[in-house]
Structures are given as C-alpha cells and as structure tokens.
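Hi F.,

I've been meaning to write this up properly since the lab meeting, where we talked about keeping a consistent format for the predictions we share between groups. The idea is simple: the sequence comes first, exactly as it goes in, then the structure tokens exactly as they come out, then a line or two of notes. No screenshots and no reformatting. I'm using this chain as the first example so we have something concrete to point to.
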Amino acid sequence: MRPLRLRDVTVANRVWMSPMAQYAAGADGRPTDWHLVHYGARAVGGVGLIMVEATAVGPSYRTTSADLGLWNEEQAVAHRRLTSFLAERGTVPAVQLQAAGRKGSHQLPWEGAGQNGSVRGSAGGWETTGASADPFGELQAPREASGADVDEVVESFAHAARMADLAGYQAVEIQGAHGYLLHEFLSPLANRRTDEYGGDPQGRMRMPLRVARAVREAFPAHEPVFFRITATDWIEGGLTLDDAASFAKELAAAGIDLLDVSSGLVVRDTQARAPVREAVHAGYAEALKEASGLAVAPTGQIGDLALADELVAGDRVDAVMIGRALLRDPYFALRAPATAPAAWPAPYRRAV
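Output, unedited:
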C-alpha cells in the first residue's frame, strides 16, 4: 500500500494498529516491558502506524489502576523507550488520549466482574465524573461534571498532548467514542444536562470541541491530531450518522486531521453495539469523509488483508485500523501475497 502524508508526518502504509488496552502499566502509569514487546512486535511486523492504547490524561480519568498515563513528565520520559523503538522500525508512534468518565474505576477485564465490576475507594478506586450523574450498568454513579470540571478536562487533554510530544509520539488521537467521557457529553443517552454543555446537539458538542481545539493547539502544528468518532449509538434516541456528520464538520474546522471511525457502547444494552459484520464501519467512514473532507480510518471487524487493500485502493477510506487480527498475528501486515521478502526484517527473511 502506498504511503499517506498527514501534515509533515508520512506513514509508510495504510495498515495501522488500533488502540487496544493491555492493562499492563505499573501503578505509576508508565509503560512496562510488556508494552515494549507487544508494540515492538507489531512494528517489526510492518504496520504503518501504531496507536498505543487508551492513555489517561489524569489519574482520575483512568478505567483501571493498570492504565497507561501521560499526565506528568516522568511518564513521558518512560514512554520514550517505546516510541524510539517504533520509530526506528519505520512505524509512526501515535497514542490515544483518554478520559474514562463514568466508565472509570473498574476491575481488570479478567478479574471478578471485569469491566462491569466497580472498584470503590476503600479498595483503591476513585470518584468518577460524567456528563450526568447516571451510572453505566453496575459501575458506581459518577458525579455530574461542573463547569470547573469541564475546564479541568480540557486542560488535562492539552497537557497530555504536550506530554505526548515530549514522549516522542508523532500523532495523537482523542478518544471520543465507546461511551467514555467525551462520548457521554455527545450522546443524548448519557447527557441530561440543561446548561451550556447539554440540550441540543450544539450544546452537547461544546465540551468535545473544546478538547479538540485545545489538543490541536497544544500538539505541534506539523504533526496530526486524530479523533475517534462515534458514527452511531445503534439504539433509538442515540446519536445517528447525521449527528456524526455534523460533528465531523466541526472537528474539521477545529483542525482535526483524521477520523478514526467506530460506534456504540454508550449504554449497557446488547442492542447498542455494532453488529457482527465485516468492515462494519467502512460505509460510515466513507460518509463522514464525504461530509467533512477529513481523512478517515475505520476500525472494527477488518481481519483480511484483501479487504483492507480493497477499501484503501479505491480511496473509499484513507487507512484501516486493525485490532484483533493484530493480536492474533503480529505479522499480519506482511502476509499479503505480493509482499516482497525484502519487506520482512532481515533476520526473518530466511523464513519467507
């Protein structure tokens, strides 16, 4: 696949790694050897860009106590070992910045009730804030964010963007989907506010747009900022593709460079999630590309290189975000029949 240039950053190909939480950070939020090996293997495997998992912009914005963080310089310096290795392998290091909102302070997915199991303060958890005071499933009810809380979220994202630059990341992504804090503000299913940050679509967009502008201003102007956007909430009364298109236009005006297109998960309902369907978000990505003029990269159920190539070759989308397929096979991006042996790392070519 041909390269893609975003601002002054050139990505070698269009097969990218989607952010997937590893819950392997130390208590200090710093990357561990697990992260170096995990992401390093995919860089060796030839993906053009690696989006490092959801990384909290502050300790109270984590989903679990094992989340990565980028809220101080010590963390940023610790990330350099990871970003340096990825860049040396020719992969663009990128990171997703996250505020969990009402989905915060839960157990590790493989412990107890997992992501549905709340961790209370007495057990090492923390107070969460949300667009409104409604809980997500069985998790603890959040405190409704005040105006001062919103200001703090905006500044925390901006500070994390500066820390990401210090860490050596060449792109950042704002997590605005999957029911986390920014998605909570956007969706009428989670936002019952009556102030300037609630009500009609313009009110519900206000806080995420403030974050987008703040991150764009804080991150170097020659490097791109992505936004993971929700194309639909998959349930009556939630966000629709038309809502997403209107929001995408505002993101373009705010200086965002690319939309990482996903959907659902704002409420605990089996109907409020993407159906099992190959490349489920590709059509939505095309529609948002046309509406906003932004580059797009769909995620979700793209597990075949031929399909990925078809989507990109026809300029339907600009890149594809690969998730589970890269968990199963770090060398997924090198498996295309037309891939020359020289594309593989030199120590591995004897096996090709």
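Notes:
The chain has one domain: 4-344.
The first strand starts at residue 4 and ends at 6.

If this format works for you, I'll send the rest the same way.

G.
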